[in-house]
Amino acid sequence: MKTTKLSLxxxxxxxxxxxxxxxxxxxxxxxxxxxxxxxxxxGLKDMSxxxxxxxxxxxxxxxxxxxxxxxxxxxxxxxxSKYTLGSKEYEPKFRQVNVPLMIGYKLIxxxxxxxxxxxxxxxxxxxxxxxxxxxxxxxxxxxxxVINAGVDIGNITIDARYTHGFTKINKGLDEKTGLFNLxxxxxxx
Length: 189
Hints:
- This protein is mostly beta strands.
- It has one helix spanning 2-21, and strands at 27-39, 47-65, 68-85, 88-90, 93-109, 113-126, 141-153, 156-165, 178-187.
- It has an eight-stranded antiparallel β-barrel.
- Strand 7 (141-153) and strand 8 (156-165) form a beta hairpin.
- The model is unreliable at 18-24 (pLDDT under 50).
């Protein structure tokens, strides 16, 4: 509960900052969508036939700053996994709201072309209850870190990123999230 409140406070502070910066020409707001590939790395030796599954994401982003910038996002993401524990196969599917808060640097910054690198924390909230063995449940709230590389060509933005869970999304199964993401977006302003 404390993590959820902290996430909401950080998101509200970020949105307040960006609404004040909206008058600045170094501010962008846009929409994005793409594909995800999720994995749930585990240290549990009894687990076998582990495989990730694809999903999608859709969201909004804001970016403020010239060379050094701040980029918060709110995304809806889906992904899944597959594994065998004992003799039973499980296929947990996740539907999450993700709120990454990244700080980045534009390596090339021209009017029509930008190459960017960014990183920061990522807060996730599961909207569903994924399939799990009896007495093993997935947490609703998860915290991780994100590394992102992107390019902007005019108003089109392309991002490739990896998000790694810092907290165990399932303590009993010793699982953390790993999420690869490729998205294309459009800067509205």
